[in-house]
Write a structure and sequence with these properties.
Helix content: over 70%
Order of helices and strands: HHHHHHHHHHHHHHHHHHHHHHH
Distance between the termini: 58 Å
Shape: globular
CATH class of the largest domain: Mainly Alpha
Number of strands: 0
Structural class: mainly alpha
Radius of gyration: 26 Å
CATH architecture of the largest domain: Orthogonal Bundle
Number of domains: 2
Length: 541
């Protein structure tokens, strides 16, 4: 063999060895990150071991636990069903019909998602509570009492209004990518418009509907602010109350039950994600002919207007009303909002976003560049943190830090870590999507030019995935700004943010003081919706 051949073989062997070393190191880093993300769940295991079996059975089977479990199941099921009832018709109306001003109704139907549900609950109690604006308007007419806004009806209404956009957006995406020729074929076989929808369209968009419904279910299960404001006992509210009363055994048992339900919902969502076969990935397909509403046009417009009024105009109007109104509950008394609170919110959100994209990158790269199921396991396991409700995560980190790392208890470091555990999967998802769009040939070309795996990644891959990384960072930042229970439980003493300040003033009844931070949160959250709607418009083009 010639000397040149030996040199080439040596170079190829060295390159393969370097590649294997880099891949092995990446796997070790990914596994380490995964264990770190899942570490808060260790507290639940340790706490469960400490509870005597007889005591655990007593707590699980108590009448309070049974009631809370039933309340949670009823709330999740009701909100999910109503979200489908509201979201699917809105998606159909804005995609497949001749509804006037469809683009306007698309935006107004999506925007309620930017209103944090606890702010929506606060606004609805202010408007429709026993001493709310509606009661004040009806008092001169001799109506001294209106139906209670609290309990299951209030929690269901508020959560439905601010979560149905999940179903609306996923169903719209399915309809926008749907191949209309199949509907036209069904119509040519003398099928009515309804029969063609039921037999052809509905089965194709069902995965999109189900995916949105499962997101609603997971959000409803983990929400703390709305049930607390509406005084409806579900897992999250009870765990927080038990934590405040230092009844940790019961809080741990409730946390286990809540976590089991959350992981169950996440498992169902993963199965739908794996089995939908690109049902609502845009292919720029030709959509079916436009449905003419005829006499139904006016009822359709009234339906869209009603949803937009309740889900968007009313809460924003209430916030503006708080801003300008004077009098009891709206005056300058109470704790004043300080710019330091805004800085605290922005700084911890920015820190969480930066750390999330850094730790998400190896997980996403390993999952995108390997065909092995074992390699994608760290990626999938990281999503467990997203399924863990903030109140459970906060409880776990409080007691883990007190027992093993007391120096980080009630520190900004622990708070940022909680945000990373909760929201890092958002950065993983956007980064992985960008990595999957990169031609592996680019990396191979860089390697053939003598670049090391790290240099090839830095010079070729990183610039191409930068938009996905930026999108993930923005999502984490915006979601962190709205996180309530983990912030309440883990923030350092005297460390106030937008959400903790809003929570304190609503609890004290100083509505006007909540107006500015609440409006800022809504505006900041709206930035994410602008990105979503622009991307949808591009995909549908």
């Amino acid at each position: 063999m010639a000397t040149g051949d030996y040199d080439r073989v040596a170079e190829q062997t060295e390159g393969a060895t370097t590649e294997q070393t880099a891949s092995g190191l990446l796997s070790v880093v990914a596994v380490g990150i995964t264990f770190l993300v899942l570490s808060p769940l260790l507290w639940l295991f340790l706490r469960a071991v400490e509870i005597e079996p007889a005591r655990a059975v007593e707590l699980v089977t108590s009448s309070t636990t049974v009631t809370v479990t039933a309340n949670t199941v009823v709330l999740v099921a009701t909100v999910t069903a109503l979200s489908v009832v509201v979201g699917v018709p809105l998606a159909i109306l804005t995609v497949q019909t001749d509804l006037p001003f469809r683009r306007f109704w698309t935006v107004t139907s999506a925007l309620p998602l930017v209103v944090p549900s606890y702010i929506g609950a606060f606004a609805f109690v202010s408007a429709f509570g026993p001493r709310g604006h509606l009661a004040d308007l009806l008092a001169p007419l001799g109506i001294k009492q209106i139906p209670a806004m609290y309990g299951l009806p209030g929690a269901t209404l508020v959560l439905t209004l601010f979560t149905y956009p999940y179903v609306f957006l996923t169903t719209r995406a399915a309809l926008l990518s749907f191949d209309g020729t199949t509907v036209e074929a069904a119509r040519s076989l003398n099928q009515t418009r309804w029969q063609a929808f039921r037999r052809v369209t509905l089965p194709q968009i069902a995965p999109g509907i189900a995916a949105g419904a499962l997101l609603v279910a997971l959000y409803t299960l983990s929400d703390f602010g709305t049930p607390a404001i509406m005084q409806y006992d579900v897992f999250t509210r009870m765990i927080y109350n038990e934590f405040g009363a230092r009844r940790i055994d019961y809080a741990a048992v409730l946390s286990w039950l809540l976590l089991v339900m959350a992981v169950g919902i996440l498992a169902v969502e993963s199965r739908i994600e794996a089995g939908r076969d690109g049902a609502y990935i845009s292919r720029r397909s030709r959509r079916p002919g436009e449905i003419r509403l005829g006499r139904l046009k006016t009822p359709a417009l009234l339906f869209c207007a009603l949803v937009a009024t309740l889900g968007l105009a009313l809460p924003v109007g209430i916030l503006l009303h708080w801003l300008i109104r004077g009098g009891i509950g709206y005056s300058a008394t109470g704790q004043s909002f300080e710019l330091a609170f805004a800085w605290n919110s922005l700084s911890v959100a920015a820190g969480a976003a930066a750390v999330s994209v850094i730790v998400a990158l190896p997980l996403a790269y390993l999952a995108a560049r390997s065909d092995s199921r074992l390699s994608s396991l760290p990626d999938r396991l990281s999503y467990v943190g997203y399924a863990v409700p903030g109140v459970v995560l906060g409880l776990a980190l409080v007691y883990l830090s007190l027992r093993y790392l007391p120096f980080v208890y009630q520190s900004v470091l622990l708070l940022v870590f909680a945000y990373v555990v909760r929201f890092m999967p958002q950065a993983v998802g956007t980064t992985k999507s960008s990595l999957l769009q990169i031609d592996p040939g680019y990396i191979e070309a860089a390697r053939s030019l003598g670049y090391s795996p790290l240099a090839a990644f830095r010079k070729v891959v990183l610039p191409l995935v930068a938009p996905g990384i930026a999108a993930g960072a923005a999502l984490v930042f915006l979601t962190t700004m709205k996180e309530l229970p983990a912030t309440l439980m883990l923030r350092p003493p005297g460390f106030e943010t937008f959400v903790t300040y809003i929570w304190q003033v609503q609890d004290a009844g100083y509505y006007g003081r909540a107006a500015i931070p609440a409006l800022v949160l809504v505006v900041v959250s709206g930035l994410s919706m602008v990105v979503i709607l622009r991307r949808e418009r591009y995909n549908a083009g």
